[in-house]
Design goal:
Helices cover about 40% and strands about 5% of the residues. It is built from ten helices and five strands; from the N terminus they run ααβαβαβαββααααα. The strands form two sheets. The protein has a three-stranded parallel sheet with strand order 1-2-3.
Length: about 270
């Protein structure tokens, strides 16, 4: 469920058509989902929080963990491109993420808390922890996200709507097209060739395999510009790099060797 923090923070942007905040209705729905999960009717619900650069990441994280008591959280950056970049906004979001990482690491010290997952950090830690093991030999594949609208039309990931609006057309519909036709169309292949090709500046980065220019953080619009398409360094590069380095140190403290870490990141 989408929940951006406490009532004041959430209601800044999550309003209904009448301009009223939705926090209390969201919380009522979340309570019903939690109750249903305790009856084994569905998995425990997770929280998706869009980062507010003016808020404190530590406080928002602790609110979710200590007061809402949700074990599954995903923090996502607002969608904007390099052309729409505001330096203060970028710094605020990046520092928010660093604050969240610090609290997440505290929550996993001295022992990894397997009953609480912050999606991006836990996913990246898993990559580091399986390095050098049998699990690492499992074939890795690139994945794509597809949006299927309620009217049956097939589009790319919604996160790309403001970078590639021309791809959000009505050329493919489940009524007369297959998912394979959509994915193998030249326009979609070209899109993902750009996404999976790292810019030249990334080649010397020590954590390039772990970060993949923000791809592993779910950050795509933040590397896009009208001039160069996806061939740009991510706006949050320095923050992602710092988080990756901290994760590497954390994994080493959990027993991984430098060689295993190097294999996973470079």
């Amino acid at each position: 469920m989408s929940l951006d923090g406490d009532a004041i923070t959430h209601n800044l942007n999550r309003i209904d058509r009448r301009g009223k905040g939705t926090y209390h209705r969201v919380m009522a729905g979340l309570s019903q989902l939690i109750a249903a999960s305790k009856d084994n009717k569905l998995p425990y619900p997770g929280i998706i929080c869009v980062i507010n650069p003016d808020k404190n990441g530590k406080r928002i994280f602790r609110y979710f963990v200590d007061e809402i008591k949700t074990p599954y959280i995903s923090f996502i950056e607002p969608d904007f491109t390099i052309d729409e970049m505001n330096e203060k906004r970028v710094e605020g979001i990046g520092n928010f993420l660093l604050d969240v990482y610090q609290e997440w690491e505290k929550n996993n010290t001295p022992k990894i808390n397997r009953h609480m997952s912050l999606r991006v950090f836990n996913d990246l830690l898993s990559i580091l922890m399986i390095s050098g093991t049998e699990y690492e030999k499992i074939k890795k594949v690139n994945y794509v996200v597809i949006t299927v609208r309620s009217d049956g039309y097939i589009n790319p990931d919604d996160i790309l709507r403001n970078t590639h609006p021309e791809l959000f057309n009505q050329n493919y519909n489940l009524a007369n097209s297959t998912l394979e036709e959509f994915i193998t169309s030249e326009a979609i292949l070209g899109l993902y060739r750009g996404i999976f090709t790292l810019p030249e500046q990334c080649q010397a980065c020590g954590v390039r395999k772990l970060c993949r220019n923000g791809f592993c953080f779910g950050s795509l619009p933040h590397r896009y510009s009208k001039e160069n398409g996806m061939n740009n360094i991510n706006l949050f590069c320095k923050f992602y790099q710092e988080i990756c380095i901290r994760l590497c140190n954390y994994a080493i403290n959990k027993g991984k060797t430098f060689a295993e870490i190097e294999n996973a990141i470079y």
